[in-house]
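hey so u asked for the seq, here:
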Amino acid sequence: MQDCVDGSSSMRMFGAVVRALREARGGSRDDFGAYVGYSASQVAMVERGERMPSARFVARAGEFLGARAAVEAAAAHLERRRYPAWFDDYAEREAVAVSLWTYDTHVIMGLVQTEDYARAVLGARVPVLEDEEIERRVQARLERQALLTRVPPVSLALVIEEWVLRRPVGGSGVLGGQLEHLLELNAKRNISIQVMPTAIESHAGFNGPWTLLETPAREWVAYVEGQAGGLVLEDRTEVSELFQRFGMIRSQALAPGDSVKLIERMASEL
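ran it, C-alpha cells below
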C-alpha cells in the first residue's frame, strides 16, 4: 500500500506561524529553504499544512526566523499521524477484520512486508519523505502485522502478481528476505498465498489491486487505493463485483502448493 500526507489542523497552524514569521522578517521562500534544507516548493507545502516538517526543519527555522521559542511552541502541537488521513478508515476496519482477501499488482502489501522491504518502498516515494517520517511509517506497518498473530488471527488470502515478487525492491538481499518471509507466513494455517504467473495471457485482475475485508459482523467491504489515496467501498453491488472477480482470480492463479514452489525457486535464484 502507498502513502501520502494529508494536512491536519495542527500542520496548518504550524505552517501559518512559520509563514507569518518569515514574511515579517522579509525572507523569501528560496532563502528560507536554502537555510533549512528544503526547496521553495517544499517550504510552501509546509506553510500550507501539506507537509510534516522534520525536526531539523523546526530547529533551523527557529534559527533563521529569530523566533526559536515561537517555532518550537507551534511544533509541539503537531500531530504526527501513524497513517495518512485517507487510510484511517481502512486501518480501523483492518485492525478488527475477520478475513482479508488481497490482490497485489505493484508491491507486496504492507501487512506482510518485512522491515527492510517496507523501508525500501517508502524510501522510493516522490516527493521524498524525511528519514524520520520513513521510520515512523515503517514502524506503523510493522505494528499492523499483529493482526496476523492475534487470537484469533485474521484469515488472510493473498494473490500476488509474479512480477511483483521478481522486482528487486531494496536489492536482491532485501527481496530474498521478503520472499523467505512470505514462505514462513504461508506455513501458517490462517494464511494462503497464490501467485498469478506472468505467462498467463489474460485474467480477471486487469483493473488493478484491491482488498476485500470481512467485518466482525460478517459483512464484506472493499478497499481500493490509487495515486491520490484510498477508498473503502460499502455499496453491495460494487463489493459483490469485486468478490466475484477475486474468486475468478484465485481460480486463475497458481494453486497454493505450486505458488510455494515458485517462490522457493525465485528465492534460491537470488
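The CA atoms of residues 129 and 143 lie 20 Å apart. Confidence is low (pLDDT under 50) at residues 1-6.
lmk if thats what u needed
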